[in-house]
Amino acid sequence: MIQNELIQLLSKETEKELTYAIKAAPFYSIMLDTTQDISKIDQMCEIYRYCSIEYDDNGKPKALQINESFLGFHKVEGQSGAALSEQILQIIKQRGLSISRCRGQGYDGASNMKGIYKGVQKKIIDVEPSAVYVHCAAHNLNLVINDAVKDVTEMAQFYDIVQRVYVFFGLSIKRWDILSSLISESGTHKGVTIKNLNPTRWAGRYDAVFALKVRFFQNLTVNKFSIKMLQPKAVDLAKAADLLKVCMDEMCRLRNQFEDVKKEATDIAQKWSIRPEFEKRDFVP
């Protein structure tokens, strides 16, 4: 009981300090998302993005610090744009913040959030026209990539195999123990294990494939994908555009070096004693 009380006191004090910092900033943006907890209750996270000025010993500004502060979860009272926006405005008011200083909204691309007529962003803009809506860049890229590959049969089959490998080992304690005993815990990727395939986030698919690749062929290296690079708090729209261009350039490079990628896949297959077979197709230029 005492430790719970101490944790609650520390939480309240931290929350108070963060709220004070947000109030001290001239403007702020809100970033919100919802997800179900283990009890199937929809929870909305409350995050504020704002800038603070660092001063030197002489009291002169020396740096601009970008901050993102998480202040809590809230049970979602309704899923409509009107219900969510009303709850958001009420939360902001309870914090003692003025909606007139809100200059940005960051949500995913769900219709109840981004809708131009009845979405949350429209309801907030009706109250504060300067609160510009920005679709989360990382989430946007996830959607683009998923849409680009969802109709490719070979990709669907590949990820089905990745998921079945996890299910085969993950649903059996005995098989998982055998796999764990065979996995080398030395080297750069210590502690990496095969993972469940994330159905919505492409970065999660990267983690699953990377773990499988490391565990069955540990000497290969894998390039980091741009999605995780879009998530740091210091990333602005210009930086996001640059990162997306780098991603596109890398994909073009891989396409132009297809034979090299094919050879690497062949080497991996041979390492696993798998007969490499590639379907031949006629392409019309």
- Separation of the first and last Cα atoms: 72 Å
Structure class: alpha/beta
Into how many domains do the coordinates divide?
2
Q: Are there runs of 5+ residues with pLDDT below 50, and where?
A: 218-225
Mean pLDDT over all positions = 78
| Helix fraction by DSSP (H/I, runs of at least 4) | 40-55%
Total helices: the number is 11
What is the spatial order of strands in the main beta sheet? Answer: 3-2-1-4-5
> What is the total tally of β strands?
5
How does this structure look, described?
- The protein is α/β, with parallel strands linked by helices.
- Helices cover 50% and strands 17% of the residues.
- It has eleven helices and five strands.
- The protein has helices spanning 2-24, 81-94, 111-114, 120-127, 137-149, 153-170, 173-182, 202-216, 226-229, 237-256, 258-271, and strands at 28-36, 42-55, 61-75, 102-107, 132-135.
- Strands 3-2-1-4-5 form a five-stranded mixed sheet.
- Helix 2 (81-94) crosses helix 4 (120-127).
- The longest helix has 23 residues, at 2-24.
- The model is unreliable at 218-225 (pLDDT under 50).
Summary keywords:
alpha/beta; 285 residues
Give the SSE layout:
Elements: H1 2-24, E1 28-36, E2 42-55, E3 61-75, H2 81-94, E4 102-107, H3 111-114, H4 120-127, E5 132-135, H5 137-149, H6 153-170, H7 173-182, H8 202-216, H9 226-229, H10 237-256, H11 258-271
Would you kindly provide a brief summary of this structure?
By secondary structure, the chain is an alpha/beta fold. The protein is 50% helix and 17% strand. It is globular, with a radius of gyration of 24 Å.
